[in-house]
Design a protein that fits this description.
Layout (H helix, E strand, L loop, with lengths): L12 E3 L6 E3 L2 H6 L3 E2 L6 E2 L7 H13 L1 H12 L11
Antiparallel strand pairs: 1-2, 3-4
């Protein structure tokens, strides 16, 4: 199984406290309160929202402010690549 690649919506990974496998941290899941689930052992982690209110607010502001840049990056990534043909001389 291929590991997710970090990008602007998933900037990091942490080791699972139970098995040590890398857990991707999708920002949208963290902000919405969805659990982060370890694919290897099934452990579910959730942010303690009351303890992390300031950090979640700052992350939410950053996520909203960077939405246009993330959308542009996604659109550019979806563009087909050039054919790679070389011009003859």
């Amino acid at each position: 199984m291929a590991e997710p690649q970090p990008d602007a919506t998933m900037p990091g990974r942490i080791p699972c406290p139970d098995c040590g496998e890398a857990l991707a941290l999708p920002i949208a899941a963290v902000l919405s309160g969805q659990p982060i689930v370890c694919a290897a052992c099934g452990l579910e982690l959730q942010v303690k929202r009351e303890d992390s209110a300031q950090a979640l607010a700052a992350l939410g502001r950053w996520y909203e402010e960077t939405a246009p840049a993330r959308a542009a990056a996604g659109a550019a990534h979806a563009q087909p690549a050039p054919s790679g043909r070389r011009r003859r001389r």
